[in-house]
Amino acid sequence: MTSQAAVSFSGNIKKALAGLRRINLEGLRWRVFDAKGQVLGRLASQISTVIQGKDKPTYAPNRDDGDVCIVLNAKDVCVTGRKLTDKFYHWHTGYVGHLKERSLKDQLAKDPTEVIHKAVLRMLPRNKLRDDRDRKLRIFAESEHPFGDRPLEPYIMPHRRVREMRPSARRAMIRAQKKAELQQQSGNETRKGKRKEVKADVSS
Length: 204
Description:
- The chain has eight helices and six strands, in the order ααβαβαββαααββα.
- α3 packs across α6 and α5 packs across α6.
- The longest helix is centred in the last third of the chain and has 37 residues.
- It starts with a helix and ends with a helix.
């Protein structure tokens, strides 16, 4: 396992290779996911599908035929909405009153790999195969990894399907836009009227 690529790896090599000896890697593919610019939930769902082997015709829920997943650029993952400030991770230390919490923004700054790890792990079924599937997941904050000597296959994310807006929602959006335009026009007219009144008062 200690190859030239592993020696040139500048990160924590012990953590990167931990648990791989317990897995039977024969016949498995090494899939590489680039998290740069990807939405966290969509990326985690694709990783959980591959790590369980659901993309293979030989999938069975009682067998662990999933491939090894290597995730790169975890620090550049994206989220939608206001999840950076509104999403929190909670844990308890075991002492009375020691309920801790950390926002997604702080967690990305502290350890971005843990964000993807938790998202994928919570999508896996809680059974005896979960630990081995977890060992097949390798996440790195940068684009550097110690598996350069392996036959890596880049994973191409499927095209994002955007659902068309319903006619009622579209009509409501158009009404809201027209209302905002009318309010803006009326506000501009009132401002112009006030300016004219001020000029008239000054001239008189």
